[in-house]
């Protein structure tokens, strides 16, 4: 039971932060299928900087976790500029732009990882070894039955994510910026009439989504995979999109969706372990989060409503 | 003033070829392809290699240009045939994406539909030992029906329960991937290759190692079908009521409803066709290009096909050309990396760049028309 909660949380929270990024972008009216690419590219930049710093300074890579986290956010943000420019300045189709960015991210990072490994480290490898970040337990909370597991063996990034998520919630729902952002996705003309530059609001929303996705990608790289390689493109970004649509483009219901994913995933593998089934049966349990989501959606998606101006190119002259 | 003039001249060079609106559907992709090859050339120069030689090697590897030497039983023709072999599933998959897009739906689950129909066709026909004359058509039929059912399910979920097709297709992708992996590992695994057992030669849609004129070639039977299907699809979309209704639903759902078009039926129908085409992609991939299925791996073709479809302007004939181009880069990359010493991964970077620049097509179009207006203005002022 404890492992279900521990593993579930460490999967759900990075997913959640990527989904929050997606909510920001989509609430502002920019469809964002590029989350997958953002998180991968962010993780690439983070991993690259960690490996490079470790190489020059001699500090172990596993201790450079926070540095990597910082750089991954910067990397994700830099890469998201492409999406923002394409969608806002060049008025490209937002779905097309998103798909293209995913393909480009995978191609670029795979190519650069191999190339840099040869040029800088002189070895033929398609990955950057990172190791798993340290974990810690909050002793006095961990003793509470059941809930205590949530405070056992936590990755430091889980705390960071919770803090950032709280701030993101505040920014989106309680601040002037958040109000304008949400209005830009519902009725951009009214935002314009109020004297606010719609393009700027949307641009910053996409940058935020890149930043948060980069963070999420790095967390996956430092926990589940323990390295950076093209296997980071496992579909976490798409899963996050599914979660945010499931959560009806709202932050708290999205958290619930992510937790369902996380616990269904860890729960599935725990059941397979307990029942001592052969390893191929774990595949069947791995479908649990996805089937569950589909079933839940059948009951809950009637009332789902996307932001009204989502995917529309903002045209000042249009009425 | 002088600087302004120079700037105008430069933009004239870029925009001149795309000024004619009638040819824009063709000129804009061509211009973006040229720009991306220039960008790729810069990348290759930065690594310190000769880009022209690299591009020539790509063509050589894909069987468009002759290589200096060939191994036994190989020639330019065999290379070209394997290019077509690899291209066949891509054409089907891109057509699948295009049909859904025409109806305003985004079928991101082509990979999953490919896998399901490939798997079902493998276990029903691939291991059955039927004669080629029955087995091959049966594979196609089974593939189309299976894919169509999966696609139809997505359309129905969207229509009946308002489930966003992006979410449901992603969920089905994963579900299919894991369940099929389970069945392969339990019942159909080849212990040596760690893949599913090979399908029989009779059921395979590619004739492998056919000896003819002292060559051993792979003949992709599905390729002819792919071309025929593309033409049929163009006919369906442009010249029939079904196509008109699907496009109307895609253009404006509400308007279509007021016009008396059954939106739900058309959405499901579009997804059935889309899924069916994805199914054909699946059988030409898993029972043609390959002859087995690797468990737990979802082919990336489903995602690439979205981009290929867009590069081809979501037009069935355009898709044939765009998948031809992408397949050349893909197939030629191995030879290029062995000859020019450039990493094979650069091929996908080039493809990514092409797609990136073609995504800017709308902007180019907009700029071109703007420039035209400016010119007209200037002429009027002068006269």
UniProtKB/TrEMBL annotation, chain B:
Record membrane topology: Multi-pass membrane protein
Domain of life, source organism: Bacteria
UniProt xrefs under InterPro entries: ABC_transp_permease (IPR001851)
GO function terms (MF aspect): transmembrane transporter activity
Main location: membrane
Transmembrane segments: 26-48, 80-101, 108-127, 133-157, 169-189, 219-237, 267-286, 306-326, 346-364
Localization annotation: Cell membrane
Pfam families xrefs: BPD_transp_2
GO cellular component: plasma membrane
Keyword annotations: Cell membrane, Membrane, Transmembrane, Transmembrane helix
PANTHER family, per database record: ABC TRANSPORTER, PERMEASE PROTEIN (PTHR47089), GUANOSINE ABC TRANSPORTER PERMEASE PROTEIN NUPP (PTHR47089:SF1)
Entry protein name: ABC transporter permease
């Amino acid at each position: 039971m404890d492992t279900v909660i521990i593993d579930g949380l460490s999967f759900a929270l990075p997913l959640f932060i990527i989904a929050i990024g997606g909510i920001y972008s989509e609430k502002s009216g920019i469809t964002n299928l590029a989350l997958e690419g953002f998180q991968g590219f962010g993780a690439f930049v983070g991993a690259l900087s960690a490996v490079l710093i470790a190489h020059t300074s001699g500090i172990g890579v596993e201790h450079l976790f926070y540095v990597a986290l910082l750089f991954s956010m910067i990397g994700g943000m830099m890469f998201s500029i492409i999406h923002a420019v394409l969608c806002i300045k060049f008025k490209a189709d937002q779905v097309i732009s998103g798909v293209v960015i995913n393909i480009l991210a995978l191609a670029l990072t795979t190519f650069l990882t191999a190339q840099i490994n040869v040029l800088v480290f002189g070895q033929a490898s398609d990955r950057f070894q990172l190791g798993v970040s340290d974990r810690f337990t909050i002793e006095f909370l961990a003793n509470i039955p059941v809930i205590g597991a949530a405070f056992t063996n936590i990755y430091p990034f889980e705390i960071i994510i919770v803090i950032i998520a709280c701030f993101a919630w505040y920014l989106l729902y309680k601040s002037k910026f958040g109000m304008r952002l949400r209005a830009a996705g519902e009725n951009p003309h009214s935002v314009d009439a109020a004297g606010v530059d719609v393009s700027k609001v949307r641009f910053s929303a996409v940058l935020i989504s890149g930043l948060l996705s980069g963070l999420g990608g790095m967390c996956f790289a430092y926990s589940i995979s323990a390295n950076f390689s093209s296997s980071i493109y496992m579909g976490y970004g798409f899963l996050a999109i599914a979660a945010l649509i499931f959560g009806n483009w709202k932050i708290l219901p999205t958290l619930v969706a992510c937790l369902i994913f996380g616990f269904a995933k860890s729960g599935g593998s725990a059941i397979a372990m307990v029942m001592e089934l052969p390893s191929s049966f774990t595949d069947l349990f791995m479908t649990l989060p996805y089937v569950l989501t589909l079933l839940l959606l059948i009951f809950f998606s009637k009332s789902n409503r996307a932001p009204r101006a989502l995917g529309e190119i903002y045209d000042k002259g249009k009425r | 003033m002088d600087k302004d003039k120079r700037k105008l001249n430069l933009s004239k060079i870029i925009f001149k070829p795309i000024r004619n609106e009638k040819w824009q559907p063709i000129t804009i992709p061509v211009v973006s392809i040229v720009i991306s090859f220039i960008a790729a050339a810069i990348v290759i120069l930065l690594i310190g290699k000769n880009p022209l030689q690299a591009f020539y090697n790509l063509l050589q590897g894909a069987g468009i240009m002759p290589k200096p030497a060939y191994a036994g039983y190989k020639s330019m023709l065999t290379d070209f045939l394997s290019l077509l072999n690899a291209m066949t599933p891509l054409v089907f998959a891109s057509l699948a994406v295009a049909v859904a897009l025409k109806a305003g739906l985004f079928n991101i689950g082509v990979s999953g539909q490919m896998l399901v129909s490939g798997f079902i066709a493998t276990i029903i026909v691939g291991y059955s030992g039927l004669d080629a004359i029955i087995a091959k058509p049966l594979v196609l039929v089974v593939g189309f029906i299976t894919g169509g059912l999966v696609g139809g399910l997505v359309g129905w979920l969207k229509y009946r329960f308002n489930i966003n097709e992006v979410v449901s297709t992603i969920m089905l992708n994963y579900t299919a991937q894991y369940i099929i992996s389970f069945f392969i590992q339990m019942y159909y695994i080849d212990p040596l290759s760690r893949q599913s057992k090979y399908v029989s030669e009779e059921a395979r849609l590619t004739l492998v190692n056919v000896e003819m004129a002292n060559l051993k070639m792979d003949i992709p039977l599905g390729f002819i079908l792919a071309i025929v299907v593309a033409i049929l699809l163009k006919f369906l979309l442009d010249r029939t009521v079904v196509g008109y209704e699907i496009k109307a639903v895609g253009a404006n759902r509400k308007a279509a409803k007021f016009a008396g078009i059954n939106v739900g039926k058309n959405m499901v129908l579009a997804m059935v066709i889309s899924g069916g085409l994805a199914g054909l992609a699946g059988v030409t991939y898993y029972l043609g290009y390959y002859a087995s299925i690797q468990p737990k791996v979802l082919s990336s073709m489903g995602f690439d096909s979205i981009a290929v479809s867009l590069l081809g302007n979501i037009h069935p004939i355009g898709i044939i050309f765009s998948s031809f181009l992408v397949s050349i880069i893909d197939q030629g990359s191995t030879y290029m990396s062995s000859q020019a010493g450039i990493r094979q991964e650069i091929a996908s970077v080039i493809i990514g760049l092409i797609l990136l620049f073609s995504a800017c097509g709308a902007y180019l179009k907009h700029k071109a028309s703007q420039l035209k207006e400016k010119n007209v203005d200037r002429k009027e002022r002068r006269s």
